[in-house]
Amino acid sequence: MANEGTGALVRVVSEEEGTILTEWLGLLKSGGALQTGRIREAELQTQAKTVLGQLRDALASGGSNADLEAYATLRDTLGEISRSRAIQGFTPTDTANFVLSLKEPIFSSLSRSHANDAKTLAAAILSTSHLLDQLSLHTMEVFLQSREDVIGRQGQEIAELSTPVVRLWDGILALPLIGTLDSARTGVVMENLLQAIVDEEAEIAIIDITGVPTVDTLVAQHLLKAIAAARLMGADCIISGIRPQIAQTMVHLGVELNVVSKATLADAFALALRRTGRTVVRKQPVSPSAS
Amino acid sequence: MDRIPILKLGGVLIVTIQVDMHDRLALALEEDLTAKIASTGARGVLIEISALEIVDSFIGRMLDNIAAISRVLDAETVVVGMRPAVAITLVELGLELTGIKTALNVERGMAMMQARLHEDDEDGSARARYED
Amino acid sequence: MRMTKTGARVPVTRTETLPIRSGDDVVRIRQAVRTRAIEAGLGLVDQTKIVTAASELARNALDYGGGGEVRVDVLQEGMRKGVRLSFSDQGPGIPDIQKALTDHYTTGGGLGLGLGGAKRLSNEFHIESAVGVGTRVTIARWK
Asked: Which superkingdom does the taxonomy of this entry point to (chain B) (predicted)?
């Protein structure tokens, strides 16, 4: 029965390719595929034509199971389309519809050609439906995977971008933290800081958390770990920039940061200079009336 | 059995750990250092570990013991040159070695010791270097 | 941290088994794990973590389990690579695993950081132990 259905499907797709393509494109357009302006009509036409051509070839050389080797090219093409749609910002519905809307034109072609053979028609519709569902699922998988890749890459970029270690003075480093700290990011931050301590032979590192929106137990733990690791290497850490609300929250949460803490980066820097045996002195009085 | 050499420079004993520490070697070092502190009257012990690729709880315990023993014998222990990856791992392991002084490299470690030896010369008391 | 059966069906690209009979074996295991961790593309910090965990668990197997062996697997699951270590001994076993995982709990005069520490240093951790039969600890660290 399945073979019978597949046979009918193969015949219809190869004989009525043109009709199916026209109907399919019509459906895609009326379904709003072009409305968002993310894709041009010519491009959509090329995509549809390629996919249908490859579907015909795959059907001709084998059964109607999308896992078969004959479908490798078609799967790749659909994957490529799906990937580019994920990056262009298409919705999942749009992407799934691209393949699913092929059902209707094929069904109507099948009904026309097998109007008198209900048994074959039913079998053919079943195989078509099954095949297109498989292909559509494949598209969705690639779509989601591409999205995940993009998100993963962005996450990594953000992590790298947002953790600069700056040298304030000979042997004094500052690490201005911005944004939320999670375990993955703190790992990167910690490694950057400790490596910079080695590279710069720093005695003191100032961790400025002015740009950190919240400090919960976990963040505090991460910070304490970084500070403990720095101490093991022989460098002292000073925390600066704890905002009043954060200080309040921390106390209420019972979060303890048993480290030297200063209100601002400037205060912390002054302390670091003092600790390394330096003082800042004004060279001349600023008063303009000193004539 | 292999032993790790201990050098004496002024009132300071210097140990550089260059090999992958197996447990017997760690125990031998602990014994040798204890004996040497007592026999030389050293005021400081400097342990350089920049070549160590890992410090597990056994080696960590050895470092802790050496620091505690030398404290009892009136000497100060400074561990210098710990690698970043080793420091992160130790903290994750739960071993923060809070009883041990640390410095970035031998030069800094020696400076810490000298400060103490110098204060000793002046008035016999060695207190915290940093005062706010 | 998950307490799962560590990557039971993950494809293994390379495997070797090393004995744990003496202190020197512990050093050899550390070196072997380092080599495999580099092979799996782990970063320096991750290498150090898994090697340290290996050192703790090998010493546990030696001190409490009377020796045993470790299987070192290099794993590859899609793009993800990792190292899995499986320590086994035929020692007395651990009657109370939860207690043994507690920091500073020790029956052998050590620091008692071995099991809990190894767990914190790994991405995956699994322990099974039967009194009188032995203990098997499996850990994995992924790139």
From this structure: Bacteria
Cβ A189 vs Cβ A181: under 8 Å: yes
CB B104 within 8 A of CB A198: yes
Q: What is the mean pLDDT of residues C6-33?
A: 87
Sort out which chain C residues have CB atoms less than 8 A from B93's CB and list them: 52, 56, 113, 117, 120-121
Structure tokens at A263: 């209100």
> pLDDT for C24-82, tens place per residue?
999 999 999 999 999 999 999 999 999 999 999 999 999 888 999 999 999 988 778 99
Q: Is B103–A234 a contact, with Cβ atoms under 8 angstroms apart?
A: yes
Q: What tokens does C49 get?
A: 């973590």
CATH of domain A2-156: 1.10.490
From chain A, the residues in CB contact with B83 under 8 A are 198, 233
Domains, chain C, in order of start with CATH, read 12-142 (3.30.565.10)
**Greatest CA separation for chain A:** 113
Judge: B87–A232 Cβ closer than 8 Å, yes or no. Answer: yes
The label of the residue with tokens 């292909």 reads A135
The ipTM assigned to this model is 0.86
| Token pair in block for residue A39 | 């894709």
Q: What is the rounded CA–CA span in Å between residue A169 and residue A202?
A: 9
CA separation for the pair B113, B100 (Å, rounded): 13
Q: Is domain B6-123 given the CATH code 3.50.50.60 in the classification?
A: no
CATH of domain A166-275: 3.30.750.24
